Amino acid sequence: MFNFFDKLKNTVTKTAQALVGNVVDTVSDEEEFSEFVLDDMEDLLISADLGVDYAAELVDKLRGQNKIKPSQVKEFLQNEFEKILETTGCSELNYKENELNIYFITGVNGAGKTTLIGKLAYKFKENGKRVLIAAGDTFRAAAEEQVDIWSKRSGADIVRRDKADPASVVYEAIQKGLKEKYDVILVDTAGRLQNKYNLMEELTKIKNVIDKNAAEYLRESILVIDANTGQNGLQQAKVFKECVNLSSVALTKLDGSAKGAIVLAIAKELGLPVKLVGVGEKMEDLKDFNSKEFINALFE
Ligand SMILES: Nc1nc2c(ncn2[C@@H]2O[C@H](COP(=O)(O)OP(=O)(O)OP(=O)(O)O)[C@@H](O)[C@H]2O)c(=O)[nH]1
Ligand SMILES: [Mg+2]
């Protein structure tokens, strides 16, 4: 029998070891939280990609107090991480029945945007929804072909205009989506242009088209982050957040990554929920993020 919890547990084993196991191994047998122990703990949290500030903040809470003993460090971490994930609220993807739902997908090149679109298209199709993909990455050679393959594989329709202006492709998809009563539009975007400024300008242009023509149907602005990029992913998120007003994050390639702590750093530093998790390259390898299950898998 397929067991979601076991699968998630396998997916986060490396993260659990880096973030929890190593700290517990190093700290829990100590008599007290000496400066020496706290320094070690801080280094371990930073190397697990929790972020320098957040690691320091956690260690500060243990300094100069004697309520929490080193033997309780695991409970302490669990409690802190639960609190952080609670602050970002519900982690289910927003969706409204009997309405158009637009998902605007952004992220740096290679993060997994197009694959996520394929997986989402499949998921919505499996639930009987009418799905349209807007092939908005007209910059990279072969990008449109790649998303076309995903549309065929998942059974979704596509608006594709080779080498056209991405904003015009998205405009056309919105018109078609409204007229033909689609349930879902998935907007693919480019990850790399000549420079970062051009990319942000292009994304802003697409966002403006959505805002002008279908603002009430923009259900999520999703930033795709490759889990392996760790703290770098956080920096990317800051830039994209300024430009396109993100609502959530999809964390890809969590399979085999030891840097899943980025989920916590994203919640802590950006207040953004991770809503989707990519756990492989296949169409079915997409999970809804569930903070309780994530915490359980880390601390079990
Ligand atoms: N292991 C693993 N690989 C993934 C996952 N998601 C995507 N990939 C792989 O990552 C690579 C890049 O994925 P794409 O979907 O093309 O990334 P992109 O963001 O669209 O890239 P650009 O269009 O170049 O900006 C591909 O080889 C995917 O198969 C995942 O969850 N797990
Ligand atoms: Mg792509």
Distance between the termini: 20 Å
Using the coordinates shown, work out and report the CATH topology of the largest domain.
Answer: Rossmann fold
Tell me the helix content.
40-55%
How would you state the average pLDDT, rounded?
Answer: 93
Structure classification: alpha/beta
Largest sheet: 8 strands, mixed
Helix-strand topology string: HHHHHEHEHEHEHEHEHEEH
How many individual domains?
A: 2
Uncertain ranges: none
CATH architecture verdict of the largest domain: 3-Layer(aba) Sandwich
The total beta strand count reads 8
| SS field, number of helical segments | 12
Taken from the alpha-carbon principal axes, the silhouette is elongated
Assigned CATH class of the largest domain? Alpha Beta
C-alpha Rg (nearest Å): 21 Å
β content, as a range?
A: 5-15%
Q: Order of strands across the widest beta sheet?
A: 3-2-4-1-5-6-7-8
Give the full name of the CATH homologous superfamily of the largest domain: P-loop containing nucleotide triphosphate hydrolases
Bound molecules: guanosine-5'-triphosphate, magnesium ion
Keywords summarizing the entry:
8 strands, 300 residues, 14% strand, Four Helix Bundle (Hemerythrin (Met), subunit A), binds magnesium ion, alpha/beta, Rossmann fold
Fold and architecture overview:
- The structure is a single chain.
- The chain is of the alpha/beta class and 300 residues long.
- The chain has 2 domains: 4-87, SRP54, nucleotide-binding domain (Four Helix Bundle (Hemerythrin (Met), subunit A), Up-down Bundle); 101-299, P-loop containing nucleotide triphosphate hydrolases (Rossmann fold, 3-Layer(aba) Sandwich), CATH 3.40.50.300.
- 51% of the residues lie in helices and 14% in strands.
- The chain contains 12 helices and 8 strands.
- The chain has helices at 4-11, 13-27, 35-47, 52-62, 73-87, 113-126, 143-154, 166-179, 196-214, 231-244, 262-270, 291-299; strands at 101-106, 131-136, 157-159, 184-189, 218-226, 248-252, 274-278, 286-288.
- Strands 3-2-4-1-5-6-7-8 form an 8-stranded mixed β-sheet, with helices on both faces.
- The mean pLDDT is 93.
- It binds guanosine-5'-triphosphate (GTP) and magnesium ion (MG).
